[in-house]
Structures are given as C-alpha cells and as structure tokens.
Design goal:
elongated; three-stranded antiparallel β-sheet; single chain; mainly beta
Length: 100
C-alpha cells in the first residue's frame, strides 16, 4: 500500500510517501524549495515512523482511516561535503483515504 500526502506553500512543495508492505512501514520525504540553492542538496533521514490503520483488510474503492506520526531530520549537504542539520519535520494527525 502506498499513501501520499502533499502540501504546497508559497516557498515549498512537500511530498510525504508512506509505504506499507507486509506490515512494515517505510517512509520517504522531499521538499522542493521554490528558491533553489544550487550550491548544495538536501536529504531527509527518518527519525520516527508510526502508522496505525483501522483495518488490515484493504479492498479497492474502500475507505481506510488511520493515524500517522512521522518525523524527519533535514540535512543540508554543501558541495564540499560539509553537512548541516537544518530542521526537523514532523507529520502527525488522522487521515481518511479511498483505496484506488
């Protein structure tokens, strides 16, 4: 199962993807900054990954409800390899989705 959450602001586009395979959770996150700094790059390391779903049975076009508590550390890497922890990003809350 793949669940995606999007958020766009004036300065960023955030994309969180949650994969659930064999009851294991794997998350990925990325932010696209509107004002791009071409001198380095960002990486996001998962700190916390917690997903609760209301059901283990999943059928196409059925509703699924759940809760997430997911946290990432954003790391800025300069071209010379120097790393800086810039911010912690946390997603927490409830959701309702339709399985497609």
């Amino acid at each position: 199962m793949k669940i995606r959450f999007f958020k766009q602001t004036a300065s960023t586009f955030d994309d969180l993807t949650v994969f659930i395979v064999d009851n294991k959770v794997v998350t990925t996150f990325k932010t696209v900054y509107i004002v791009l700094d071409r001198k380095g790059k960002n990486e996001w390391l998962p700190i916390k990954q917690s997903v609760f779903l209301d059901s283990t049975e999943r059928f196409k076009d059925s509703e699924i409800k759940g809760k997430i508590d997911i946290e990432f550390q954003e790391i800025y890497i300069e071209k010379n390899g120097e790393k800086h922890e810039t911010r912690t990003i946390r997603f927490t809350g409830q959701f309702i989705a339709i399985i497609t």
